[in-house]
Amino acid sequence: MxxxxxxxxxxxxxxxSIARALKQNVPDxxxxxxxxxxKTLALALRETVADVAAKAIDESFSDCDYIFLCAPVQRxxxxxxxxxxxxxxxxxxxxxxxVKTAIHEAVREAGLERSFIGGHPMAGxxxxxxxxxxxxxxxxxxxxxxxxxxxxxxxxxxYKRLVQRTGAIPLVLDYQKHDYVTGAISHLPHVVAAxxxxxxxxxxxxDGIMKMVAAGGFKDITRIASSSALMxxxxxxxxxxxxSSLLSDYIRALQAFRQQLDEKKGxxxxxxxxxxxxxxxxxIGASSGxxxxxxxxxxxxxDKSGALARxxxxxxRHGLSIKNIGITHNREADDGVLKIEFYDETSMKKARDxxxxxxxxxxxxx
Length: 366
Hints:
Layout: E1 4-9, H1 13-25, E2 29-34, H2 38-46, E3 52-53, E4 66-69, H3 76-86, E5 92-95, H4 101-110, E6 116-121, E7 142-147, H5 153-165, E8 169-172, H6 175-203, H7 209-213, H8 216-222, H9 229-238, H10 240-262, H11 266-281, E9 295-299, H12 307-317, E10 322-327, E11 338-342, H13 345-357, E12 362-365
Parallel strand pairs: 1-2, 1-4, 2-3, 4-5, 5-6, 7-8
Antiparallel strand pairs: 6-7, 9-11, 9-12, 10-11
Helix pairs in contact: 3-4, 6-10
């Protein structure tokens, strides 16, 4: 008999990565999966991530110790009703959504509060879908748990231990506090990034000179504007009150900044920048949260034929996989002409050391 049986309703990037991590780190685990995509289920079976591919949310899930709701949030109501009919009494139900209020309200209406702990693994990728899932995605990422007030304390402790088996760091929060916190450090920044990109687009010249010379600072602050428009539309509609309140505070902060700028208040402007610098520099660098660190280095290379190829070949000989590579044409904020991005912090640091030993000037970019 398996030591643990876990069910997954939806098997995309996050659900797939959790399933892979559990399969890799929990002996004798049995995983049952349902997804609307037959191709996804076939791939999960072929890669031995799933042991059973269910055709629906049916009796296949009746032996599950844990059931993960990983489908899009708009399907939660119907999926909860289906799960309630088949889950055993001591099964723990959880989800992976980035907004928690709606799912907690739905769980309360379904009468499943004693069985539910909300979950938000603060990890992700530009690539979506099960095919891009990986067991290492959650390593050292915060995994926020939002238990209901009536779920037994032992279930919370057991689930924290299971989360730790994925490599993630469990953090217990009240679900309303969770939505306010993520509204500030994840949802509002996406709104700001989108607004800033649209502002520059509206003010750019016909020949696109702003886009052509966009510097590192602009690209860094707006990188998240490349995220899924549909996903962020849904998040804004789900966490509206918190985002709106924080946005109002941000607008007031910008207005104060503008007043100091118009009045040329040098000391006040300095304090604004210095306060931000000190607080930003105190952040934990290796975060895998919703605004993830880019594991990148900048390196100077000679403007000669084959220079780029030599760097790539050097890193390849040491078994390093490059996520992205590019030439920085506007270097007002960058330390080198070449920007190389990696998938993890270990690879980034190793690449920096290798290039430095070979005589290149290479710096980690935070």
